[in-house]
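call fold(seq) -> tokens
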Amino acid sequence: MKRILTLTALVFATACFGQDECDLTYDGNGDGVVGSADLIDLLAEVGTCIDSVFVQCGDPLLFDDHLYNTVSIADRCWFAENLRTRVYSNGDPISTVNGDDEWQDYPAEGRVSVYGDGNDCLQYSPEIDACDTLQSLPEYGRLYNWYAAADCRNACPSGWHVPSDEDWMELELTLGVSESDADNTGWRGTNEGEQLKAESGWITNQWLDGNGTDDFGFTALPGGMRYAQGSYGSAGSRGWWWSSTGSTQSAWCRRLEDDESGIWRSNTQPFNGFSIRCIQDSVELTSDGQQSCFLAYDGNLDGAVGSADLIGLLAEYGYECPPGMEFTCGEALGYQGHDYETAEIAGRCWFAENLRTETYSNGDDIPIMSETNLFSETGHLAINDVVYYQWGVTTDSRGVCPSGWQVPSLSDYETLPISAPLVAHPYGSLLHGVIDCCDLVVSNNGPFGPYEYSWTRDESNPSEGWRFVGTASSSSLGDSPKYFGATLRCIKDPN
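ret:
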């Protein structure tokens, strides 16, 4: 099978020694130049064009040691069974949670489980014992919270994605749901749910036949759900499927039931455990209309992975080196709508004021701290132009500092002179305190001093992170729970 990769000689050549001409977006091999070799490495991080048994929609697709059936509906290719992987497409594990107590901890992170793998389990499956994980896993796949469904590392194979709310609507319109009904919540349509349900596996009795007609081969099964508190329910009678559309407050999903013919659409809390189906991205076609391989990043949809696609891929990781751009430490650095003052201290370039962005460097929103996700590790809260972050933001793969910069490590702060301008704040940066974790208010130490609490990217233990504590004349290091809110600084990567 032919491997397709068209790569012109791309060299975003900028030597970054001494005075920085630009921030190198992805100098993977460390030669001081962003070139073709770096771009090829970058492609490998998001998936490459690989040979596979999958040639065209309807063929099985191998992912994480399981062959998935696929089906074409309205020129879109869908999984014909529920996802069962425990890893993202880049190989990172999705956190597997078995016990009920662990599941209801409500961290803002991806989690996966198998129906029945806990203490509290109810089921109505007519053909299997769904509370037996050895039976529920091959029948229903795994259950995921919304954070796993929406994670940028992608729970689906490269070239596929978790369907958005719009992808689900496109499917429903094809089945016959009216445009006026598609945007509604609750039960919609007439018999569209029956068209998706499998012909067996749904609860049946003398009063009810919950099975469907499976008109398109979607083969939807009643895999039940895992409630936010950790218990399992409804296997055999109901099935839920995530969309990737939502927020840390609520996310869109779909539901089918044994005694309903339509399709339920609703917004629900992201900590619930639902099934996932995958839908294919754009694909490259051979002359006979077959798919020759998985295209890793056909950004311009021209049927080949070429130089234009790689330039687009770079943009997802920052920006290519713009010609003529120069930055010298001590000058202001523009980042996401704000010019940050900088200062050189002990041979390193620091932000001379606190970070105030509310998005990651790729543009993704940083979740807002609220009562529902108070004890997560990855939120932010903005108060009077002061932005407080939870520790998990510092280690997120999307980055919170500009390209070429990072959150300081513990050792970076340990070598900081007490008299440094970073501590004395001569540039007008305020001395901010931490967020009171329980009431979402600013503590007595802020927002106007006398202390600044600023995270490092290092943890002191699994539940606490190291932070810097500074005043105008002294500094120290300590640790706090990761769900506390503190400010952030950025330090330039060493050349």
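The radius of gyration is 25 Å.
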